[in-house]
Amino acid sequence: MVPGRRHKRKPAKAPKPVAAEAEIVAIGLQGDGTAIVADKTVHVPFAAPGDVAQLTVTGTRAQLTGLVKESAVRKAPVCRHFGHAREDGPNDQKMGDECGGCALQHLDTDYYNAWKQGLIRQALSREGLSHVEVLPLLSSSPRMRRRAGYSVRWIGGKAQIGFLAKGSHRLVPMEECHVLDPELFALRGDVARLCEPLFRLNPTAWFTCFVTLTDTGADVDLGGDVAEEDLDLAAREALTELARAMKLSRLTLNRVPLYVPGPVTVTFAGSPVPLPPKGFLQATKDGEETLQRVVLDGIGEAGHVADLFSGSGTFTFAMAKRANVHAVESVPEAIAAINTGRNQPGLRPITTQVRDLFRQPLMPDELKSFEAVVFDPPRAGAEAQAEQLAASAVPVVVGVSCSPKTFARDAAILTAGGYRLEAVQPVDQFIWSPHIEVAAVFRRR
Questions:
Q1: Which keywords does the record carry (predicted)?
Q2: What positions carry a catalytic annotation?
Q3: 428 known ligand binder
Q4: What is the DSSP code (8-state) at residue 418?
Q5: Which residue has the higher pLDDT, 2 or 30?
């Protein structure tokens, strides 16, 4: 090599697909089957443990092409879009039957429930908490999801809406869905039409349209490659007229309001509260109510409670029926929503604070006035706050989490600090997916 001249590396060659036959030995953390092929673990979507499968293997991924023997825990999926694809779409766009939403419709219910419990047991075991009981799943029913993120692209001269196939940017137009609320699913054609004025400005744009069912109707945020300042008068007028015809509760573009005919509210434990654009909301109403029951049972008769990572008040208003509540959240719009709803009849006093609990957790001196603390952090967990709780004298802590891994880490911190964790309650709002939420009560020894 010439001195001073950087050697240019050749790009690595993509592995060639190889045909193989193997037994599926387990389901991995992301819901794919796993098999051993040529002494290497490969991941196989839509496979069931006990299947003897024909595979096309590329690197560590494999496509299921046929079954030599069908697993005893395999069952027929309920949706036509599960696990099958075709590539015959217009304009060289790959279209498909299968969406990327569900990974586990093909598993027997008992096996599915045990597998989700197993995810939690594995996470607890890694943190030295293998003795903790994992209770049976409390699951949402099908067709209950009240939030969705639709993908929209301009294909074949019109706006096409659907979901993305697993591990792909390929758009899958949907004809049925057994997860979404039927009202939410029925809106997809209208949402596609909302994007048409934007595609006239930028036909190559990508949009992820978040739709939420609220007390006052559908709340739609068009998130994508067109900004509010890019809109011309014709686009603004078209969007306003479409939103009015759809009777939307609100239309925003990348969270910037375009059409807001009145207040947009959701109800937490009987209390209507304003919902910020794309504001956090539990995925299903019955899942929300289940988590509220676990939290209320956990705090018991506590009269002064801190609600940390409170959001817009999922637990705040339920607890305020029996206790004084101090809600803490880093998002100002969420705290503003709680402030708007906190003076309703039948509620005990609610105080609020905008504070980043990752960087500035409540310290033991600040926690000493509370008889119970509830925390419900994002997926990253509440490590910094758990460390301060572990050093505090709070009698009861209730933890809620959408990540068994970070929950187990935080639980280990609390138990090392003198709390007793007796059992963990799984709550399955994301049916047929690898996601699972947990709630648990920690009591001072």
A1: 4Fe-4S, Iron, Iron-sulfur, Metal-binding, Methyltransferase, S-adenosyl-L-methionine, Transferase
A2: 402
A3: no
A4: T
A5: 30
Rounded CA gap, 283 and 286, in Å? 9
> What SS3 state is found at 284?
strand
Query: Whole-structure pTM over 0.85, yes or no?
Result: yes
360 known ligand binder: no
* C-alpha span between 101 and 116 (Å, rounded): 17
What is the Cα–Cα distance from 277 to 255, expressed in whole angstroms?
6
> Which stretches does DSSP call E strand in 314-412?
324-329, 350-354, 372-375, 396-401
Q: Is 117 annotated as a binding residue?
A: no
Give the C-alpha distances (Å, rounded to integers) separating 42 from 45, 74, 158, 372.
10, 19, 39, 46
3-state helix, strand, coil in the chain (%, to 5): 25, 30, 45
Strands 207-214 and 217-224: antiparallel
Provide the b/e sequence for 378-414 (b: ≥16 CB within 10 Å).
eeebbebbbbbbbebebbbbbbbbbbbbbbbbbbbbb
pLDDT band at 354 (very low <50, low <70, confident <90, very high): very high
Structure-block tokens of residue 120: 């939690």
Residue 193: both structure tokens together: 């039409």
